[in-house]
Structures are given as C-alpha cells and as structure tokens.
Amino acid sequence: MKNIKVIFEPGMIEVEVPYGSRVISAIEKAGIAFELPCGGKGICGKCGVKILEGASAPTETEKKLLGEKIKDGWRLACQSRIFAVSRIFIESGAPSYHKILTSKFLCEKFEKNPSFMKKDFHIPSITLENPVSLQEQIAFHLGLDTESVNPFIFRNSSLCRETEFTGIFYNGRLISIENRGAKNHMYGIGFDLGTTTMVLTVFDLEECREIVTIVRPNPQIKFGDDVISRIDFSLKGDGLNKLNAVIVDEINKMIDVAVRTAGIKNQNIYQFVLSGNTVMEHIFLKLPLNSMSRIPFNPVIKGPVETTATRTNLHINPEGIVFVFPVLGGFVGGDTAGLILATGIHRSEKIQMGIDIGTNGEIVIGNRDGIIATSTAAGPAFEGGRISCGMRAQTGAMEKCWFSDGSIRWQVIGGNNLKGICGSGLVDVISLMRQYGIIGEAGRFEENSESELKKYMRKQDGGYIFVFEPDQADSVYITQKDIREFQAAKAAIRSGIEILMRIEGVKPEDIESVYLAGALGNFVSVENIKKLKMLPDFPAERIIPSGNTSLASTLLFLCDSRLKHEFSEIARKTKTVELSRYTDFQTVFTEFLFF
Ligand code: FES
Q1: N vs C: which end of the chain shows fewer Cβ within 10 Å?
Q2: Residue 64 beta carbon below 6 angstroms from any ligand 1 atom
Q3: What does DSSP say about strands 352-357 and 360-367: parallel, antiparallel, or unpaired?
C-alpha cells in the first residue's frame, strides 16, 4: 500500500502514513501531543483539526459535530482519513500553554546534591603481561571494586577499543561511559503519574534546571476513569499487563517527544523519578492489585523502589536508575509522600495541612511530631472528566469566569476560542450560578429563578442547561449532571478534611498554613471554593497555592539525592486513615453535597 506525506503546521513536522490512515494515526506518528476526549468514538467533536490542503470528504459524523466549520477545512482527527498529500494545522502542535506549576520556590529550600557525577579518565592499554579484563582495568584505575563497574556499559563495542572515557557515576558506581570529550549533559526525568493526567519534565542534572515539560492524559482512561475501575480491570485476565503496557507505551512517547523538543538524546537520560498514587505506582511496576480491592486495602509493597530502565522498559539510558516514591499505606501513595516532602510539613513546628486536589484527593494534617493522611475518591471532575464540556487546563479551556455589566465574562487559557471548561472555570461558574440563584442549596436548577443570569438557562431534555453563548449552536454549557459530579467531588474533598480535623481535634484556626496543590489548587479562586463549602473557613492569607507538588517533589529529588532519607522519616511519622472506616463519613459526605 502506498504511503502519503502529511505535514503538520505550525511545527512543520513531516510524516508518511499508509493511504487511507486516519488523521490521528499521522498525529501519533508525528509525536504531537493530542487528545481524544471521547476515545475517538466520534461522540464529543473535540478532536478538530484544520486541514489546509488535502482534506477528504466529510463523514456524516463530522457533518453533525462540526456543522459550518467543515467549509473552512475542519475535520475530526479520529474520523477523517488521509487519501492525498495533506497539510494540517494543529493548535496543540504549537507549544501549548498548559496550566501546570512546578513550584520553583519550593526548590529554594533544598541544596543541589544530585546522585550523579561525571568524570573524565584514562586507562593504559591492556597488555599481554597484564591480561586483565577491561572492567578490572577501569576499576583499578578509578580505585573502585570491580563490581562497582557496571558490566553492561561495554555493550557498546566501539567504546571497548578506547582508553579515554567520560564516566557517569551513580552514588560512586560507574553506570555508563561515553567517548571522552562528548560534551553531553546528564539529564533526569521527573514524572507525575496521575489517574487522569500525566506530567513529565526533563531536568538537567548538572545545572539543576527544568528543560521541557510535556502533559498528556492518562491513556488508561479507556479502562475506567478512577482507581477503583482500574483495579477491577487489572483483576480480569490479562488486565494488569494491558494497563501496564498502555502506560509504559505512553510514557515512552512522552519521553521521545520531550527528547526531540529539547534536542537531546534518550541515552543521556540517567534517572527517572516517578510519583503517583498507590494504584498508579503498582500498575507502573506491574505489581498485582488484588489486595487493594478489599478491606484492609493493603498494597503489595510500600517501597520506595529503585530499579533500572531496562526492567521497566523505559526509553532512557538502559542502565538509567528508576526511582518510585514510597506508598504510605492503603490508597495514600507516593504523590502524598511527595506533597509532604515538597511542602516540608514533616519538619514544621506548627500544624499544617496539605490538600492535593485531583481525581484522587489527598489530604494531610500534621507537623514534625506526626502526620495523618488520607485519600478520597473525588473523581475526575476537577480535571474536566465526566463534565459534558469539561477539559484539562490547557489551550481553549475557560479558566476563570465572572459576571459584569449584565453579562457572563470569561478568560480562556491561551486567549483562543472557548472549547471547554477546566476545573478552576467550573468552580467559578458554579459559584456564580449559586450566587445569582440559578441553582439552589441542593444544586438543582431553579426553574422559577428571577436571576439576571436567567438568560443563560435553556431547556433541554426535560431539564435545564446553562449555556455560555446562547446565540451559538455549539456553545459550551453546563448540565444538571455536571453540577452533580462537581458536588460529589467537592463533598469527597471536604469530608476528608473534616474527618482528619476531627481525628486530630484541630479547628481551622489551629492550622498555620494550608497548601493547596494539584490540578486545581494553584489556579482556582480560593474565595469561590470557600463559598461552595469545599474548604473550611480558613483565613485567605493562610492558604498557599502550591502547584503540582507531586511533580515538584520529583524535581527536588533529582536536585538533591539526600531527600531519599527523608522518605523514611515521612513514612515513620505518617499514619494513614481509611475514610470508609469512619461511621460518620456518609453523614459528613451528604452534608457537604450541599452548597
Ligand atoms: S475524539 Fe471525540 S469525536 Fe474525535
């Protein structure tokens, strides 16, 4: 079958795909980050691309979902096929504006002390008089035990003829060699493996600085959008292998895109540090989840785990070190250990709280004398999941919304056309709807509302929806079901907070600082989440938006290897709490479903 050329703009990336391939196959081949919100089923209409040249005839699905936009060359990447040489414009092919924050300020608390170092060395040629192995010769001249020279560094046979090397040492062990004079830097990767979203940052280990960051949805979503459904899937037949394969494959694609973007080589990446919840970390390590499916929800391992790139099938230097953050207990995983590490709650004299708002909400309270932590199943609403027009916080998402001069106004990430709503936008909109009486205390649309916002209400399928651009047929909107999803998510977080505070016997005024982390934490209006009763009434100045602490902690770890020892301290000090064991959990949860 003949191949057809496809050029993607604005990056001018060129690929060839077999005649008749779907556009999405060409996008994937080009390594462009791209999302299929409905998994490519032709339901959501959100995978639009503009075909500048070579567009095929639109399908019935495309006509229905794209309407007038068809005439301007718009097609759906999951539906349209390539039959001719094509030029395609993809917004996300340009450097996309992802709303993530890696809390650089936190790095200032730590010193540079990476585990890796580089050293040039020379060895004399091996002679008949002294017929030692190359491994022994190198060890002798470096003053190391022979076992400290990794035997697999000699797999590159051309290097075996050299006598001048640059060695890469990991904690005093020679793990890799390069030709002397190769001026490659050493790189590491910090990885936040979220249930819904994954974030990868390439980090220069010598200069301790971030090089490039890539964000992708977790591809396991097709097997279920929360950890419970992933556990269920893992227990069926080959489920665990499938979950592991899709995640490793996607991580490798992210690494390949990052490497290409940064202009570096995979073999110069020597460390990969991963932080995620218990279930995600077990799947990454391909460890069974049977015991996480029933009380007392015990993980197979707590870790931390240190292993190799070869063992985990990652596209970095084969001898590179993979480090997975420790699980603290039950569903309280490595990302919570990362939250504590990054915020320094375990060293604080005063009581502090950390809240990581994501598909799994993690909450910790404590200080240097002890910490309690829990995990609560918020669901993916804060990351745009299960919301009709929801999307992650990236180009095209409404991130803020307010009411002025009689109209709803909003701010879109990247300043482009409104495509959907991310978590912070959803909080603002629901807060406005509640404030202006469009919805009541129980979250129901108020049919008889006299609100100034009434003009945004539309009847649909026997109920109401809230439409942002009432004059447009394809406007972004909020449904009653979306409000219910939001209520369940915010009640899950709030009940976790309430129960931990009751266990510790602390009141809001006893807490010195509240670190708000995660997909939502950094960009949300604190005033609005307090109005919606998602947080207790903490004084605003005590709430510290802290960004993605899960990712930030992996970068801190790359920067300062001594933090490995802090994990044992964090594990020793932290007691985990399983919320379902508390008899009043259901009552508290129901109470906070209300606004
Ligand atoms: S991904 Fe939903 S229509 Fe293409």
Answers
A1: N
A2: no
A3: antiparallel
